Automatic annotation (TrEMBL):
Gene Ontology MF, one: structural constituent of cell wall
Quaternary structure, from the entry: Self-assembles to form functional amyloid fibrils called rodlets. Self-assembly into fibrillar rodlets occurs spontaneously at hydrophobic:hydrophilic interfaces and the rodlets further associate laterally to form amphipathic monolayers.
Organism: Mycena pura
Official protein name in the record: Hydrophobin
GO cellular component: fungal-type cell wall
Length: 104
């Protein structure tokens, strides 16, 4: 009887672990964002904003997000472009670099 209780508890916990949903967390140093504009440094909106802020986008490869807000895990919707960006921010956080589109 004493041996059955630990065995049952272990089986129960294993079942819970197997049934629990798993979500892939973002890569370390990245943030899920909803951005009003996403593009490269050739995008006129992005290059104009960067120039107004005095931010150089020279040498930045890949997508850049502008006007972004953080997406939380639950309940957020994004009517613009959902992206995962590295944690690098320029121009007081108005410009995020290293962005990759994601599906919500």
């Amino acid at each position: 009887m004493f041996f059955k209780l630990p065995l049952l508890a272990t089986a129960f916990l294993a079942t819970l672990a197997a049934a629990a949903p798993t979500a892939s967390p973002p890569a370390p140093g990245t943030t899920n964002l909803c951005c009003s504009t996403v593009g490269t440094n050739a995008n006129p909106v992005i290059s104009t904003l960067a120039a107004l802020l005095g931010v150089s986008l020279t040498g930045i490869l890949g997508n850049i997000g502008v006007g972004c807000t953080v997406l939380t895990v639950l309940g957020n919707t994004c009517s613009n472009t959902a992206v995962n960006c590295d944690s690098s921010q320029l121009g007081s956080g108005l410009i995020n670099v290293g962005c990759v589109p994601i599906t919500l």
